[in-house]
Amino acid sequence: YFLKGVILEYVQDCEPKTRSIDLLDLRPDTDAIALVDEIQKGEPLITASCKEHVIHLVRRLQDKLGEKEDHKFYLFKVLRAHILPLTNVAFNKSGSSFITGSYDRTCKVWDTASGEELRTLEGHGKVVYAIAFNNPYGDKIATGSFDKTCKLWSTETGKCYHTFRGHSAEIVCLSFNLQSTLVATGSMDTTAKLWDIEKGEEIVTLGGHSAEIIALSFNTTGDRIITASFDHTVAVWDVGTGRMLHTLIGHRGEISSAQFNWDSSLIVTGSMDKTCMLWNAMTGTHIATLAGHSDDILDVCFDYAGQRIATASADGSARVYNAETKKCIAKLEGHGGEISKVCFNPKGNRILTASSDKTARLWDAATGHCLQILEGHTDELFSCAFNYKGDIIITGSKDNTCRIWH
């Protein structure tokens, strides 16, 4: 389950399927049993045997929603992670461990609680640029490298299961589907590829862009993937067939990031043309342009519920928009340099930004007030992330360190 939603996994005609149930209106005082009764009416998948489990999940979500939220973060540990600069950091779902990629050609696995290095994943011939856990499971890690290969590793042992070869240029982005059956890689060779995790084989090449692919993202159910390219477009693909379903055309600059919302109905894109655009994921049609920034948009994201969108810009500000009304709800102003990363905490009431001014900032998502400045890095930040509970933050900087904040 996720905040604001439950995913049901089931088998129909020998095919594994998933269905997501939307709980956007859930509140701490909602009657959980009545709610599940209501869902059950329209959802034959919830049988008597699994109904208790769904009620339990809903109550756990309610507990989360009811928690008081005035957490101050303090620096817990500085990790001198690699001898050469870092490229990326990522948490596993629980936040018990995280990984760092580096120009030193390795990916390292770290224990969040102690700050100890657990293992080093060695084998790439060049920069390890893109890294990911297969969340929510977290038992596998994928690394994408400038050596044109992607490797799949065991988190537990550090053993390399597969090396995926086939791209003719650097791999710069990758992602697992939520079902943890596929890994997608995007490359400077203008293609993306889907790989079978079990078999270690290429399933399909997604070809059609005229420039590098710099971001890609699966939807929740795993039947669609989007690829964002320097050719100013985003393509929507059918994962099963590898067919291109839509091209999202409208941006006048390179795309910096693209994402589905939770129920996979919307896609948000950010671009160097200073705008963020909202698209209908089913039809590929343009819904709205979210304007207001005075420089490149470097990152965009939805909250888990898909109700809000946050944008980060080279103009030094971030903005929050309501996905329904398309209005700007809050301007996050105060950083002294460009903001390269923005993310919501899982509850969606806090926003974290990472900036070239050497700080990260924590903001109230509703009001735009800055709640805290995370200081101490000695060079620009390129990464920031929350763990799933939202009580640990990790920041990555060009000063070659990661900082863990509790």
From TrEMBL:
WD repeats lie at residues 79-120, 121-163, 164-205, 206-247, 248-289, 290-331, 332-373, 374-406. GO terms for biological process: axonemal dynein complex assembly; determination of left/right symmetry; heart development. Pfam families: WD40. SMART domains: WD40. Its main location: cytoplasm. InterPro entries: N2O_reductase_N, WD-F-box_domain-protein, WD40/YVTN_repeat-like_dom_sf, WD40_PAC1, WD40_repeat_CS, WD40_repeat_dom_sf, WD40_rpt. It is found in: Cytoplasm, Cytoskeleton, Flagellum axoneme; Cytoplasm, Cytoskeleton, Flagellum basal body. The keyword DNA repair does not apply. Keywords: Cell projection, Cilium, Cytoplasm, Cytoskeleton, Flagellum, Repeat, WD repeat. Required for axonemal dynein assembly and ciliary motility in ciliated organs, including Kupffer's vesicle, during embryogenesis. Facilitates the onset of robust cilia motility during development. Belongs to the WD repeat WDR69 family. This is Dynein assembly factor with WD repeat domains 1. It comes from Leptosomus discolor (Madagascar cuckoo roller). The lineage of its organism: Eukaryota, Metazoa, Chordata, Craniata, Vertebrata.
